[in-house]
User: Fold this.
Amino acid sequence: MAIQKKTGVGKSIATAASFLMQDEVVAIPTETVYGLAGNALSVKAVNAIYTAKKRPHSNPLIVHISGIEELTKYAKNIPPVALVLAKAFWPGSLTLILKKKKNVPDAVTAGTDTVALRIPNHPITQKLLQQLSFPLAAPSANPFNYVSPVTANHVMAQLNGKISYILDGGRCKAGVESTIIGFIKGKPVLLRHGAITKESIEAVLGYSIEEEVKEVFLKRPGMFKKHYSPHTKLIVAHDVMLASEHYSGKNIGYITFAEKVKGVVPSQQVQLSKSKKLEQAAHNIYDALINMDSKGFDIIIAEWLPDEGLGKAINERLRKASAK
Ligand code: TXA
Ligand code: MG
Assistant:
């Protein structure tokens, strides 16, 4: 049986740093979602992350660095366009997959020759990184396959007893994970939609990018079909009322973009953004899923968002959360 830890929660960067220096696992706030952090250069700490999360070792972790000058410490053969993107979006919600240097342990990269890097844009975690002499490997702080946490309370509910400390940095602003870009023959390809829209990346580049997950990257670990799932069965539909007709007699919770579901009591439904702002919808999506999942419904029916901008990131998560 796994050893139960006493999980502390608080705002002490020093406490978080001291646990991390002892190869312990600590939840950290980022602008996207909470991460489950450990010393990226310590195999012991990295293994402790996989254990706490029950994550398969075949699924590599993102390494969080404190500044752009750290890029060349851990990555090599960096395509010039990767630097353009790093300069445009860091610190921020963009993860770059680059050829790794030898000092990055295979445990972090699941044995692949690439490493995922980003600089998080959260003042507390930036301060923490500056105090440490090593970068932080951190997947989202959810148990494998469950919904990603966007508050310290979410982390506590999911990982109490499994980790040493939760560094409370308030509610995550963006609310969905970083956008992941890989490179094929030096050309950027989009591997995961996320908090930075494809459109804004293309605006920086001046050309459009492929969503090439299949050819090279699907064979890689980590891009699972099912992910981010609540325990309650989740259905996604364009017309939630129509979808609900298949489930008469069931106790249904609804998640819609902006409009209220007529004839359904407020406690059984949540709107992601009454003013139809995709940014606000992204900020609220995981909280809505976790909240609806806690209410004991037979089924949750969620509405597809417009498939543009951040709507793509939200839809990608709804698609995976509802996959069988
Ligand atoms: O916003 C985020 O990205 C959050 C915060 C904590 O930074 N982190 C996050 O990590 O979402 P995680 O582990 O939940 O998702 C990272 C994804 C996984 O799908 C993993 O397979 C992929 O990144 N990944 C990591 N390293 C990779 C690599 N070397 N090659 C291809 N994919 C990689
Ligand atoms: Mg995750």
Summary: The longest helix spans residues 278-293. The longest strand covers residues 94-100. The CA atoms of residues 47 and 107 lie 7 Å apart.
